[in-house]
Design goal:
CATH superfamily of the largest domain: Type I PLP-dependent aspartate aminotransferase-like (Major domain)
Number of strands: 13
Largest sheet: 7 strands, mixed
Oligomer: single chain
Low-confidence stretches: none
Helix content: 25-40%
Structural class: alpha/beta
Strand content: 15-25%
Number of helices: 12
Strand order of the largest sheet: 2-8-7-6-5-3-4
Order of helices and strands: EHHHEHEHEHEHEEEHHHEEHEEEH
Length: 353
């Protein structure tokens, strides 16, 4: 049989990103920016030339990298940057470095597509469970207890997906230092990182064993453009990733859009302010009926549940969420909710407004 000669992918779970969005539902599922994107991006779309479509983009993305260095106030160099097809494209590059049967440690629940890619690359994913009775709080001490010489990668998503909680930079640094002692590579996935202060980003750290991944999909509202980047300051890691990096990861059009989005720093700040205002209102109302996991007011996602079939509860009322079944260490008694623009509509649908 053909299957006997191919990889066994039976351990890979269904990815919520493959679920079609049904019409006439209030979409609180996928992690797009509920306020769209910067008006400056529209200017780029109106100026697209035919050459942008039929020619290959420049493989070094020099201009975009220079703009990112400026945006981050020279916290890294142009040579420290890798561009990818969304943050997931960057994570896929990094996972190519995994040896068969090597171990990746994380905590769960966390971003499932990364875990699936770890398994698809022949590695083993292990996790520290986040506990309901502790409000799914990420415990740094518990993660450190599990770090050992046989762990290849430590995967940290900050802010966490699905809870939206933010880990303080001093705690991230503690993890990186401990991992460095055991020759473990730490991947800090900051896909939702634009919803926390820049000073809390692991980009501010300087360690040989650290990779920081970022996306334009969330804060900048460019999910459909598919562009992300990772910052690697360690010489050995940089050399290894450059060997598995592929040319033309993103289009010339995507690059132009990302450059223009970086010019509008006010858009992300406004998005954070509007998310925070809506999320506080939403959490206050939902907490009367549901258990809410530990979260940050500034991030647009959170974990909600604690009752039977919470996913069905919301769906029957016309609200599309992400079922906890799409994560490890969760079931459909919890859902991930992305803060919608229309908070009052959501509350009306569940009779809390």
């Amino acid at each position: 049989m053909i299957a006997s000669k191919l990889k066994d992918l039976s351990k890979i779970k269904h990815d919520y990103g493959k679920e079609p969005i049904k019409n006439k539902l209030l979409d609180c599922s996928l992690g797009s920016n509920p306020f769209g994107c910067s008006p400056k991006v529209i200017e780029v779309l109106e100026s697209i030339r035919l050459e942008d479509i039929y020619r290959y983009p420049q493989s070094n993305y020099k201009t975009l990298k220079e703009r990112l260095v400026e945006y981050w106030d020279n916290e890294f160099k142009v040579d420290d940057l890798f561009i990818g097809n969304g943050s997931m494209g960057c994570l896929e590059k990094i996972n190519k470095l995994l040896k068969p049967n090597s171990t990746v440690l994380g905590y769960s629940p966390q971003f499932l597509p990364y875990i699936n890619d770890v398994i698809a690359n022949g590695a083993v994913y292990k996790y520290v469970p986040l506990k309901k009775e502790e409000d799914f709080e990420i415990r740094i001490d518990k993660i450190i207890e599990r770090l050992s010489e046989n762990v290849a990668f430590l995967y940290v998503d900050n802010p966490n997906n699905p809870t939206g909680q933010v880990i303080k930079l001093k705690d991230i640094e503690e993890l990186v230092k401990e991992a460095e002692r055991k020759n473990i590579v730490v991947i800090v996935d900051e896909a939702y990182g634009d919803f926390m202060p820049k000073k809390n980003s692991a980009i501010n750290l300087n360690y040989e064993n650290l990779v920081v991944v970022r996306s334009f999909s969330k804060g900048f509202g460019l999910a459909g453009v598919r562009i992300g980047y990772c910052v690697v300051k360690g010489k050995v890691l940089k050399r290894l990733i450059s060997k598995v990096d592929i040319p033309f990861s993103v289009t010339a059009i995507s690059e132009k859009i990302a450059i223009k989005a970086l010019e509008d720093r006010g858009f992300v700040k406004n998005s954070i302010r509007e998310v925070r205002k809506r999320k506080i209102k939403l959490l206050k109302a939902l907490s009367r009926k549901f258990h809410i996991g530990k979260t940050s007011f500034s991030t647009p996602i959170f974990l909600c549940g604690g009752r039977d079939a919470t996913y069905s509860y919301f769906l029957k009322r016309g609200i599309l969420t992400v079922s906890g079944k799409e994560y490890l260490n969760l079931d459909d008694s919890y859902v991930r909710i992305r803060v919608p623009k229309e908070v009052d509509e959501l509350l009306r649908k569940i009779s809390l407004f």
